[in-house]
Design goal:
Layout: E1 4-8, E2 12-15, H1 25-41, H2 52-56, H3 63-70, H4 76-93, H5 105-114, E3 118-123, H6 127-136, E4 145-148, H7 149-152, H8 157-167, E5 173-177, H9 180-188, E6 192-196, E7 212-214, H10 219-226, E8 227-228
Helix pairs in contact: 1-4, 8-9
Pfam families: Hydrolase
InterPro entries: HAD-like_hydrolase_sf, HAD-like_sf, HAD_sf, PGP-like_dom2
GO molecular function: phosphoglycolate phosphatase activity
Protein backbone atom coordinates (compact mmCIF):
# COMPACT_ATOMS: atom_id res chain seq x y z
CA UNK A 1 0.00 0.00 0.00
CA UNK A 2 1.31 3.46 -0.90
CA UNK A 3 1.95 6.08 1.74
CA UNK A 4 -1.33 7.90 2.35
CA UNK A 5 -0.57 11.60 2.75
CA UNK A 6 -4.18 12.31 3.69
CA UNK A 7 -4.03 10.27 6.90
CA UNK A 8 -2.24 11.33 10.07
CA UNK A 9 -1.17 8.77 12.67
CA UNK A 10 -3.67 8.77 15.53
CA UNK A 11 -2.98 8.69 19.25
CA UNK A 12 -6.04 6.47 19.69
CA UNK A 13 -8.41 4.27 17.72
CA UNK A 14 -12.09 3.93 18.58
CA UNK A 15 -13.82 0.80 17.29
CA UNK A 16 -17.41 -0.10 16.71
CA UNK A 17 -18.12 -3.67 17.89
CA UNK A 18 -20.77 -5.28 15.64
CA UNK A 19 -19.69 -5.67 12.04
CA UNK A 20 -16.25 -4.23 12.79
CA UNK A 21 -14.56 -6.41 15.42
CA UNK A 22 -17.24 -9.05 15.89
CA UNK A 23 -18.97 -11.18 13.25
CA UNK A 24 -22.36 -10.35 14.66
CA UNK A 25 -24.45 -12.76 12.62
CA UNK A 26 -22.62 -15.75 14.13
CA UNK A 27 -24.18 -14.85 17.48
CA UNK A 28 -27.24 -12.82 16.54
CA UNK A 29 -29.08 -15.09 14.12
CA UNK A 30 -29.41 -18.16 16.37
CA UNK A 31 -30.52 -15.88 19.23
CA UNK A 32 -32.93 -14.02 16.93
CA UNK A 33 -34.83 -17.16 15.96
CA UNK A 34 -35.00 -18.41 19.57
CA UNK A 35 -36.25 -14.98 20.64
CA UNK A 36 -39.25 -15.11 18.31
CA UNK A 37 -40.03 -18.69 19.31
CA UNK A 38 -40.28 -17.50 22.91
CA UNK A 39 -42.31 -14.38 22.01
CA UNK A 40 -44.83 -16.64 20.24
CA UNK A 41 -44.96 -19.04 23.20
CA UNK A 42 -45.62 -16.11 25.54
CA UNK A 43 -48.32 -14.66 23.29
CA UNK A 44 -46.37 -11.50 22.53
CA UNK A 45 -46.02 -12.16 18.80
CA UNK A 46 -48.14 -13.87 16.18
CA UNK A 47 -47.10 -15.03 12.75
CA UNK A 48 -43.73 -15.69 11.19
CA UNK A 49 -40.34 -14.53 12.38
CA UNK A 50 -39.39 -11.34 10.46
CA UNK A 51 -36.72 -11.89 7.82
CA UNK A 52 -33.14 -12.06 9.04
CA UNK A 53 -32.15 -9.34 6.57
CA UNK A 54 -34.45 -6.90 8.38
CA UNK A 55 -32.62 -7.42 11.66
CA UNK A 56 -29.16 -7.40 10.09
CA UNK A 57 -29.98 -4.14 8.33
CA UNK A 58 -30.65 -2.53 11.72
CA UNK A 59 -27.27 -3.32 13.22
CA UNK A 60 -25.63 -0.22 14.65
CA UNK A 61 -28.94 1.28 15.76
CA UNK A 62 -30.16 1.64 19.34
CA UNK A 63 -32.34 -1.31 20.42
CA UNK A 64 -35.44 0.83 20.85
CA UNK A 65 -35.14 1.90 17.21
CA UNK A 66 -34.45 -1.65 16.02
CA UNK A 67 -37.73 -3.00 17.41
CA UNK A 68 -39.69 -0.16 15.77
CA UNK A 69 -38.50 -1.57 12.44
CA UNK A 70 -38.41 -5.31 13.16
CA UNK A 71 -41.56 -5.35 15.33
CA UNK A 72 -43.48 -2.27 14.17
CA UNK A 73 -46.82 -3.59 15.41
CA UNK A 74 -45.43 -5.01 18.65
CA UNK A 75 -46.65 -3.72 22.00
CA UNK A 76 -44.33 -1.86 24.39
CA UNK A 77 -44.38 -5.06 26.48
CA UNK A 78 -43.21 -7.10 23.48
CA UNK A 79 -40.40 -4.64 22.80
CA UNK A 80 -39.23 -4.73 26.42
CA UNK A 81 -39.35 -8.52 26.46
CA UNK A 82 -37.42 -8.66 23.18
CA UNK A 83 -34.72 -6.47 24.79
CA UNK A 84 -34.42 -8.88 27.73
CA UNK A 85 -34.43 -12.02 25.61
CA UNK A 86 -31.92 -10.79 23.06
CA UNK A 87 -29.35 -9.95 25.71
CA UNK A 88 -29.95 -13.21 27.60
CA UNK A 89 -29.76 -15.38 24.49
CA UNK A 90 -26.70 -13.63 23.11
CA UNK A 91 -24.80 -13.90 26.38
CA UNK A 92 -25.62 -17.61 26.41
CA UNK A 93 -24.51 -17.87 22.78
CA UNK A 94 -21.10 -16.39 23.58
CA UNK A 95 -20.28 -19.67 25.31
CA UNK A 96 -20.44 -21.37 21.92
CA UNK A 97 -17.32 -21.48 19.69
CA UNK A 98 -19.31 -20.47 16.60
CA UNK A 99 -19.61 -16.81 17.71
CA UNK A 100 -16.38 -15.30 16.39
CA UNK A 101 -14.34 -12.16 15.73
CA UNK A 102 -13.41 -11.27 12.17
CA UNK A 103 -10.13 -12.80 10.94
CA UNK A 104 -7.06 -10.97 12.18
CA UNK A 105 -8.83 -8.80 14.75
CA UNK A 106 -6.99 -10.01 17.84
CA UNK A 107 -3.55 -10.01 16.20
CA UNK A 108 -4.04 -6.55 14.65
CA UNK A 109 -5.23 -5.05 17.94
CA UNK A 110 -2.28 -6.58 19.76
CA UNK A 111 0.16 -5.03 17.27
CA UNK A 112 -1.48 -1.60 17.42
CA UNK A 113 -1.35 -1.67 21.20
CA UNK A 114 2.30 -2.74 21.07
CA UNK A 115 2.99 0.34 18.96
CA UNK A 116 1.47 2.57 21.59
CA UNK A 117 -1.97 3.24 20.08
CA UNK A 118 -4.67 3.71 22.73
CA UNK A 119 -7.59 1.39 21.93
CA UNK A 120 -11.27 1.94 22.76
CA UNK A 121 -14.70 0.61 21.81
CA UNK A 122 -17.77 2.79 21.21
CA UNK A 123 -20.93 0.79 20.55
CA UNK A 124 -24.65 1.50 20.51
CA UNK A 125 -25.17 -1.90 22.17
CA UNK A 126 -25.98 -2.83 25.75
CA UNK A 127 -23.14 -2.74 28.28
CA UNK A 128 -23.22 -6.45 29.19
CA UNK A 129 -23.37 -7.43 25.53
CA UNK A 130 -20.41 -5.28 24.45
CA UNK A 131 -18.24 -6.23 27.42
CA UNK A 132 -19.41 -9.83 27.20
CA UNK A 133 -18.05 -10.18 23.66
CA UNK A 134 -14.69 -8.62 24.56
CA UNK A 135 -14.38 -10.83 27.62
CA UNK A 136 -15.50 -14.06 25.96
CA UNK A 137 -13.15 -13.57 23.00
CA UNK A 138 -10.19 -12.53 25.19
CA UNK A 139 -9.68 -9.03 23.78
CA UNK A 140 -10.81 -7.08 26.85
CA UNK A 141 -7.23 -6.46 28.14
CA UNK A 142 -6.31 -4.78 24.84
CA UNK A 143 -8.71 -1.86 25.40
CA UNK A 144 -8.28 1.11 27.68
CA UNK A 145 -12.06 1.28 28.05
CA UNK A 146 -15.27 0.10 26.37
CA UNK A 147 -18.08 2.62 25.96
CA UNK A 148 -21.66 1.57 25.21
CA UNK A 149 -24.90 3.47 24.79
CA UNK A 150 -26.44 1.05 27.29
CA UNK A 151 -23.97 2.08 29.98
CA UNK A 152 -23.85 5.82 29.34
CA UNK A 153 -27.44 6.43 28.20
CA UNK A 154 -26.39 8.42 25.13
CA UNK A 155 -28.95 9.24 22.44
CA UNK A 156 -26.52 8.76 19.54
CA UNK A 157 -23.04 7.50 18.75
CA UNK A 158 -21.99 11.11 18.15
CA UNK A 159 -22.68 11.81 21.83
CA UNK A 160 -21.01 8.59 22.95
CA UNK A 161 -17.78 9.30 21.06
CA UNK A 162 -17.79 12.92 22.25
CA UNK A 163 -17.98 11.68 25.84
CA UNK A 164 -15.15 9.19 25.27
CA UNK A 165 -12.88 11.82 23.70
CA UNK A 166 -13.55 14.28 26.51
CA UNK A 167 -13.11 11.77 29.34
CA UNK A 168 -9.78 10.53 28.02
CA UNK A 169 -8.33 13.79 26.74
CA UNK A 170 -8.04 12.54 23.15
CA UNK A 171 -7.58 15.08 20.37
CA UNK A 172 -6.51 12.89 17.44
CA UNK A 173 -8.22 9.55 16.86
CA UNK A 174 -9.42 7.23 14.12
CA UNK A 175 -13.04 6.15 14.34
CA UNK A 176 -13.24 2.64 12.84
CA UNK A 177 -16.64 1.21 11.95
CA UNK A 178 -18.97 -0.23 9.34
CA UNK A 179 -22.11 1.95 9.56
CA UNK A 180 -23.15 5.48 8.71
CA UNK A 181 -23.53 6.14 12.44
CA UNK A 182 -19.78 5.51 12.82
CA UNK A 183 -18.96 7.91 9.99
CA UNK A 184 -21.21 10.54 11.54
CA UNK A 185 -19.75 9.99 15.02
CA UNK A 186 -16.21 10.44 13.75
CA UNK A 187 -16.85 13.41 11.49
CA UNK A 188 -19.05 15.39 13.88
CA UNK A 189 -16.34 15.02 16.50
CA UNK A 190 -13.62 16.19 14.09
CA UNK A 191 -11.88 12.82 13.76
CA UNK A 192 -10.62 10.63 10.91
CA UNK A 193 -12.99 7.83 9.86
CA UNK A 194 -11.91 4.40 8.61
CA UNK A 195 -14.83 2.57 7.01
CA UNK A 196 -14.99 -1.23 7.25
CA UNK A 197 -16.46 -2.78 4.13
CA UNK A 198 -16.44 -6.48 4.94
CA UNK A 199 -19.55 -7.10 7.06
CA UNK A 200 -22.03 -6.38 4.27
CA UNK A 201 -24.87 -5.17 6.52
CA UNK A 202 -25.28 -1.69 5.01
CA UNK A 203 -25.97 -0.25 1.55
CA UNK A 204 -23.53 1.25 -0.95
CA UNK A 205 -23.82 4.70 0.62
CA UNK A 206 -23.26 3.45 4.17
CA UNK A 207 -19.63 4.54 4.40
CA UNK A 208 -19.85 7.72 2.33
CA UNK A 209 -17.60 10.38 3.86
CA UNK A 210 -15.00 7.94 5.24
CA UNK A 211 -11.38 9.04 4.91
CA UNK A 212 -10.31 5.50 3.94
CA UNK A 213 -11.97 2.12 3.38
CA UNK A 214 -10.66 -1.30 4.40
CA UNK A 215 -11.97 -4.63 3.12
CA UNK A 216 -10.35 -6.76 5.83
CA UNK A 217 -9.43 -5.85 9.39
CA UNK A 218 -5.65 -6.40 9.10
CA UNK A 219 -5.53 -3.66 6.42
CA UNK A 220 -5.89 -1.23 9.31
CA UNK A 221 -2.28 -1.87 10.29
CA UNK A 222 -1.14 -1.01 6.77
CA UNK A 223 -3.05 2.27 6.92
CA UNK A 224 -1.43 3.08 10.24
CA UNK A 225 2.07 2.26 8.97
CA UNK A 226 1.62 4.46 5.91
CA UNK A 227 0.02 7.42 7.68
CA UNK A 228 2.17 10.49 8.33
CA UNK A 229 3.26 11.61 11.79
Amino acid sequence: MERNESLTKPKAMIFDMDGTLFQTETLLLPAYHKLFDILREEGLHKGETPKEELMLGCLGMLLEDIWKIVLPDGSPEAHRRADELLLQLELEGLKEPDAVLYPGVEETLQELKRRGVRLFVASNGLEHYVKGIADARNIMPLFEELYSAGQHGTASKVDLVALLLKNHGIERAWMVGDRSSDVEAGKKNGQTVIGCQYAGFGNDQELKGSDAIITSFPELLNLYENAVE
